[in-house]
Amino acid sequence: LQTRLPAVGYTVFSLMSALASEHGAVNLGQGFPDFPCEPALLDHVDAAMRAGHNQYPMMTGVPALRDAIAAKIAALYGAQYNPASEITVTAGATQALTTAILCCVHPGDEVIVIEPAYDSYLPAITLAGGVPVPVAMELGEQGYTVPWDQVAAAVTPRTRLIVINTPHNPTGAILRAPDLHALGGIVRGSDILILSDEVYEHMVYDGVRHESVCRYPELAERSFVVSSFGKTYHVTGWKIGYVAAPASLMAEFRKVHQYNVFSVNTPMQHGLATYMADPAPYRDLPAFYQRKRDLFRDGLKGSRFTLLPADGTYFQCVKYEAISPILESDFAQWLTTEIKVAAIPVSAFYSQGRESGIVRFCFAKKDETLRLALERLARL
Ligand code: PMP
Ligand code: GLN
Predict the structure, then answer these.
(1) Ligand 2 contact via 313 beta carbon (within 6 Å)
(2) Class of the 39-278 domain?
(3) Whose atoms come closest to the Cα of 13: which ligand?
(4) Coil, strand, or helix at residue 173?
(5) The Aminotransferase class I/classII large domain covers which part of the protein (predicted)?
(6) N or C: which end of the chain has fewer CB within 10 A?
(7) How far apart are CA 216 and CA 86, in angstroms?
(8) 159 forms bridges with which residues in the sheet?
């Protein structure tokens, strides 16, 4: 069979998690919590199952959940999305991203992707027949930033879509108001669409607010905005997310969605809908993860790792040049097999495998897990 994805193997997350378990390493590689979700969330899902919510839901998602999502977006970002025509529940953010790309990218269309980039964007663009146009973030004193002049220079008459991600995986960088204004300046007067991956929307630290594209009407009117319950409620294995977009874009999204998955499992949607009535879990998330971030950073302060800023997400990137000159994937492998702490090489997030001597750790872990990892890392 001639492959449709010649540049692709198994994801770095699957590979590193397998290596971590083979070598009994503390897994700070793949991003997922090693602690349980709130028991109350399970009670809501259990109640939904027992109430008989076990058959196909509406293709677009359970109405109560779409209502809850629209209410949350309105409360947090002041944007009005009609739950009937502008919100769709998806099988995780991954499906939302792929479906959004498939519904609007035609063969030969160019898609600007800011690198390092989450690994699912490029294969989805390739499957759509699109041409990925990577623009690399710059790493300076204040961490990673997007060079908007280079994004502007990458725009051509074939540009169909720009993919952004804030808070950003893997760097932990966040976009700020001037970034959104710069993006607005680039797309103004064009028919370029935006795909905004905001799965870490509730993980922004130090009192800074999340700059959702939903806050910017000029951007929101041309954007698919994606989020994921897996991140917010510590249930990455549930694979439920959603997309919000203006009705005209959503109509096209749903045409593809209905033949990707048709619909997403019913009881979890009902459980999430009633659980979401309480804003406390996502309101308290920044404080919860900021404490873990600080615990992890403090533990590495005396080590030979150089900490990069970590303004959002549950990832901490570190430079390891003082420890070793080897390639990132070799270093991550060595950390996993010899030091028994798994990490992800940031080079895996670049189409051309750019090397910066940086690996990513996930701090969405129990304190005891972080302490065990720190004991091993701080000795290096
Ligand atoms: N986008 C980014 C930036 C992510 O980090 C992840 C999760 N690893 C996803 C999308 C996918 O989310 P989900 O698990 O809900 O498919
Ligand atoms: N988003 C998670 C990460 O970046 C992993 C998701 C996956 O395993 N595909 O680590």
Answers:
(1) no
(2) alpha beta
(3) 2
(4) coil
(5) 26-377
(6) N
(7) 16
(8) 110
305-331 CB burial, b ≥16 within 10 A, e <16: beebbbbbbbbbbbbbeebeeeebbeb
Ligand nearest to the CA of 167: 1
pTM of structure: 0.98
32 CA to centre of own chain: 12
Q: What letter would DSSP give residue 336? A: I
- 3-state secondary structure at position 61: coil
| pLDDT tens per residue across span 365-380 | 999 999 999 999 999 9
| pLDDT tens figures, 204-240 | 999 999 999 999 999 999 999 999 999 999 999 999 9
pLDDT band at 353 (very low <50, low <70, confident <90, very high): confident
Q: Verify whether ligand 1 is closer than 6 Å to residue 236 (CB atom).
A: yes
Q: How far is the CA of 14 from the centre of ligand 2 (A)?
A: 8
The stretches of 105-215 forming alpha helices (DSSP H) are 121-127, 148-154, 177-187
CATH 3.90.1150.10 fits domain 12-30+284-377: yes
Between helix 367-377 and helix 285-300 the angle, nearest 10°, is 20
In this structure, are residues 111 and 125 in contact, taking their beta carbons and an 8 Å threshold?
yes
Measure the CA–CA gap between 230 and 237, rounded to whole angstroms: 7
Question: Residues in the chain, how many?
Answer: 380
Long-range (24+ apart) CB contacts under 8 A made by 286-294 are 286/202, 286/203, 286/204, 286/205, 289/203, 289/205, 289/314, 289/363, 289/364, 290/205, 290/206, 292/363, 292/364, 292/365, 292/367, 292/370, 293/205, 293/363
Cβ of residue 13 lying under 6 Å from some atom of ligand 2: yes
Kindly report, residue by residue over 67-92, the tens digit of the pLDDT: 999 999 999 999 999 999 999 999 99
The answer to whether ipTM exceeds 0.90 is yes
What letter represents residue 75's amino acid? A
* Cα–Cα distance, 368 to 364 (Å, whole number): 12
Largest distance between two CA atoms of the chain:
58
